[in-house]
Amino acid sequence: MPLLLAPWLHRRLFGSAVSSRTGGLLILGAIMAAGAGHGAGARADAERDCRVRLADGDDLVVRGVLAANWMPPPDSAARRPLLPVDAGAVSSAGGPIAGCTGGMRVRLPRGSSPALAGTEVILRGQWRPMPKPVLGSAWPREPAWAGFVMADSLAVVAPARAAAHPLLWARGRAEAQLHRLMGRHGPLADALLLGRRETLDRALADRFAQTGLVHLLAISGTHVALLGDVFVLIGRMLRLSRSRVAWLTIALIAAYLALIGAPASAVRSGIMMALALLATVLQRPSASLPIVSAAALLILAVEPMAALDPGFQLSFAGVLGIILLRGAMLRRIPERYRRNPAARWTTESLVVSVAAFVTTAPVVAHHFGQVAAISIIANLPAIPLSSLALVGIGAAAVLEPVAPPVARLIADGAGLALDLLNRVVDVALLVPGGHAAVARPQWWLWGLAGIAFLLALDATARMRDRVRWAVAVMSSAAAFLLLPFAGRAVDGGMELAFIDVGQGDAVALRTPAGRWLLIDAGERDDGWDAGERRVLPFLRASGARRLEAMVLTHPHADHIGGAAAVMRGMPVGRLIEPGVPVGSPIYLETLKTAEERNVPWAAASQDRGLRVDGVEILFLWPPVDALDTPADANDISAAVRVRYGGFTALLTGDAPAWVEERMIQRYGADALRGDVLKAGHHGSRTSSSAAFLDAVKPELVVVSAGARNRYGHPHREVLSRLRARGIEAARTDQDGTVRILVEEGGTSWARVP
Fold it and tell me: How far is Cα 15 from Cα 168, in angstroms, rounded to an integer?
């Protein structure tokens, strides 16, 4: 406030006005100071949020309202979605928790009856915090994703009532109507029109993400703009005045945004449309950039933490790319392509798609570890098809109460558009090189790529059309070729990373030449896939683009659960595992994924090994005869010795003590001696025997276990054995991911934070 008043005070006190430049700087400084203060306040609020302070395992009673419909899956073994719940009151064993309101997510118990959004419920369960981020950040985490309630019971207090929660009641009825109208297309229609993705098939969502078309499954600016145009068209058809059409459209868009929960990208589009309509009514000139800036300012003024949301970043990056690049690119298109209507539509659509891709690709690569250049082409048929489906779904929903047969006919047409959209996604997936997993890019690289693209367009403006576009395409392609180098530079030596995957194992190994191997891939259970959520983000953030080999020690879900996601997420040179014929669904899915991805298979058996860039990997267990009739899969768990120069690490999976004894008998203490040992079976008392510890004599033992796991790992007996021998222990449940760096040549090693 003092900075804003400074120009006025200067005139009053000194009788002269400050210069326009000084006044502008003062106003800009005031805005920056206000923004910094507002952001600091938002950060403090996020860190004080009750969900951040809850402890793992706290018994909670949540009285709230379902924010989405609960429809039990047809298969009792199918994945149950995490449902949003608007918590009105939360209490623990110590009594009510003051101020603990807001959004929560809960996975309802099996057998829970169907319920519509707006249903008032009481949930009883335990608080489960989400794992720590793979890479730490100075920014606070969004409290809504601090954790979730694992429900033990759910009691319906009152069915959904329009008077109690009108918006949620309307959302629930709309969801139910869409699923009834669209049949098998119901989940996709729900995502397109209402932004609800709880019932959407996970494999379908992954296919859209891989082809860069996932924006179609979120309520984006395109959706809101299309609905706004429909409202304006209806108003014109009813011969309403311009001002009435504008105000009616603004009101309807506001109601729609409130109905779907007001996601940032949709709010951005709604604010922009409202400002443009108001400018028309007031007969004032409007420009795109000020409108975009005003939309961003309004959103951040209400919720500064929205700036960290990928949806917010993607929405504004896309629209800014279109505004800034579209005109410059169109001006360089030959005149003959602008005269022909079909060629003009195709060219303009392609230009818009390229402009949006160039500016959103860094955000997508940063948050999701992939880039899909095929989206530039796939958007051409996909956006019209999704728009057609969106209009059809909305029209069918409006007409069903008054003309059910017509509504059914329109819904069938919208279903055909969705089928064609799925076909576009399937074809885009088959294009070689159309999408690729990438390391998290460094921003300077993307800046250079953008500058190269713009300079190429500008510098070739005086050249012939063909030469101009050839140079532009070649320059931008050359910039994108630098993408593989965006990861962290390899600094020589070897790295071992015991990734925090909860109650499971996953060890990443980087060779001195920068190649990567993976031993185990973490757990997977109902709604959690460590391969997707923990292993792939770590590898991509570390610069890995390919795995030379993936070793799976034995076919238990806490070791192989994430393997399929890893193979889908990046190329794998070879799959190595004992090969015990078990019929568990996760093991069969792992083998099927390896077959689909053409990943060669090799057996992990005693005395076999491989050598990569000076790193020697030797399997100490299991022998071939142990694979015949194992009483437990842990009995054939592959034990791996990693040796690089003078450094040795032993990774024994879940091998029990009797296997450790057999290895001592076969190899002797000299061959087993190592610097680092991964505690067998997550620190269970059945492994890491005293004899084995005395043979290995490790300086560091790493325990990979989940926080407050139900098995009590690591057991006190194992920790006592380590303390008695003066061996340092590192635990993923307390320390997060544990990283070991070995100097070049294996001369020395150290644990790094």
Answer: 59
| Phi and psi angles of residue 642, each rounded to the nearest 5 degrees, phi first | -105, 125
**Interstrand relation of 120-129 and 147-158 (parallel, antiparallel or unpaired):** antiparallel
* Most confident range, picked from 156-160, 213-217, 588-592: 588-592
Which of 161-170, 338-347, 397-406, 676-685 is modeled with the greatest confidence?
676-685
pLDDT in tens, 56-82: 778 889 898 988 888 887 766 666 777
Rounded Cα gap, residues 346 and 343, in angstroms: 5
Instruction: Tokens for 14, please give them.
Output: 């000194």
Q: Which long-range contacts (CB under 8 A, 24 or more apart) does 708-711 make?
A: 708/56, 708/57, 708/733, 709/502, 709/503, 709/682, 709/733, 711/503, 711/682, 711/684
First-residue to last-residue Cα distance in the chain:
43
What is the C-alpha separation between 391 and 397, in angstroms, rounded? 10
Omega prior to 714 cis, within 30 of 0: yes
**Bridge partners, 676 (sequence order):** 649, 700
Order the strands of the 647-651 sheet from edge to edge.
609-612, 615-621, 639-644, 647-651, 676-678, 700-703, 728-731
Residue 189: how many other CB atoms lie within 10 Å: 28
State the CB neighbour count (10 A cutoff) for residue 346: 13
pTM: 0.67
Helices (H), 20-125: 20-48, 50-53
Give CA angle at 260 (77, 278), nearest 5°. Answer: 165
Phi, psi values for residue 729, rounded to 5°: -120, 135
pLDDT value of residue 417: 93
Q: How far is CA 174 from CA 198, 226, 511, in A?
A: 15, 19, 54
So what's the pLDDT on residue 291?
A: 81
Distance of CA 237 to the CA centre of its chain: 43
In degrees, to the nearest 5, what angle opens at C-alpha 538 toward C-alphas 534 and 542? 175
Report yes or no: 590 and 560 within 8 Å, Cβ to Cβ.
Answer: yes
CB 245 within 8 A of CB 284: no
Compute the distance between CA of residue 353 and CA of residue 222 in angstroms, rounded to an integer. Answer: 13
Q: Beta-carbon neighbour count of residue 29 at 10 Å?
A: 13
